[in-house]
Sequence to fold (517 residues):
Amino acid sequence: MPKSLYARLLAVLVGLTVVMAALFLVVIRHSDTARNQEINQKVYRSLAARLIEEHILQGETADPSAVRKVFDRIRVVNPRIDVYLLDSAGQVVAASGQNALKRASVDLVPIRRFLKGEEELPIVGDDPSEPVRKRVFSAAPVPLAGETGYLYLVLRGVSGDSLAQQIKQSYVLRETLWLIGCGLALALIASAFILTLMTRPLRQLSAVMDKFRQSGFAGQPEALRLPTDEVGKLTDTFNRMADRILAQMTALQKTDAMRRELVANISHDLRTPLASLQGYLETLHLKGDQLAQEEQRGYLAIALKQTEQLSGLVARLFDLAKLDSGQMTAALEPCALGDLIQDVVQEFELAASTKGIGLECMVRPDLPLVLADVGLMERVLRNLLENALRYTHPGGTVSVIAAPAADGALVEIADSGIGIPDAELPKIFDRFYRVEKSRDLAAGSAGLGLAISKRILDLHDSTIAVTSAPGRTVFRFVLAYAQRRSAAGQESADLRLAEVAPAQRPVPTLAYPMAER
Fold:
């Protein structure tokens, strides 16, 4: 059995053609035989009656010598007609044929139906010279001595010939078969051509899929021209599947690279404080009696700081894992964003002053309530401020701005730091990613703050955006209002603003002088 679909369909098509040809031959033979039988029986229908009237009947009975003469004349004129004289019971009384009789009697039922003339021709009856075969005939009653017999003429014609003999003897049949054969051949060729055209997209798709499989599902498959039928839908599905597989493999490769980087980063971030912690603890253990109490307290303070750093790293990893798995949800509620920003900025005043960085906070007084999780949003503001202060040189400025916008409250955290290269911007929200690979400026950072901030803002249906150039980097996001203002509800909105005005009074600009270097 052929393996390809095209070969199997072609084999089925050839088989159907052969079957159709055989059926045509059977139908043609049957119809041609029936037509000849009908014609012969119609032509010779009254022959038996004329023979009886003109040559056999002498007075009221048949003349036996005349019957013999008729037998001899029919044998000479048309040897394909056998003449039999039957008695009233159907027994063969005399026969003109040279072959030995295979039947001694003939069924009279077809003869009586023939003589009634009420049925459509042809009507077939027994052939005494054949044990089984039936043929068309002509018959007429003939009076015999004391009974009524029948003159029974069996019209052999072509009804008993084989198909090969019929084809050989009939020009019309040969032409008909030739035309049918040519028609079947043309139909087979046309069907094969159509089948080739219809299965060509499938063969092309199969070849492309095989190459895609041989490439280990890693090579970009060849683009196929899409027909507009089911094959086109299948091709489009394959193209989408291949693109999805390639995208997933690319994502897996990226994830694998991130995993290796994660292992390296975590190893470094854990090894450094652990090594410091171990060193100071070993020193206390080995030389504790030799150290002054002030030195011991200093060593313990450093060890405690390293422990806090490790604890913070593990906590951030745990939070990011919960955010990625969907275990952490945001409890959204109306909150005063201005107060939250002011509280967070005040926490960083000392750190900014120590580094000699100016810290500014500007919140519009007409800022409405926003819908947010206060605890999670505080994490976002902390992470963004830590990131801004970390990458800003002494003498620079970090500013936090909040103002109403069309879709919600717009928050911007800007710094005058080193900036982010354009090629690095799409990657800064990946976990453990740092723009500064040397870690000199990123000391104490595990590269998780921006990743956590982005996922928290995703829980708020908000998107964080960043623009950067040397000396100017801005992170911005929008938080939805707790209740959108409209023209019809402007009065109620003003009332709400009046209620929260004391908490959302204008925040003064917080500027700190540069520390001495």
Observations:
- DSSP finds 13 helices and 14 strands in the chain.
- The radius of gyration is 54 Å.
- The longest strand covers residues 134-144.
- Residues 42 and 121 are 8 Å apart (CA to CA).
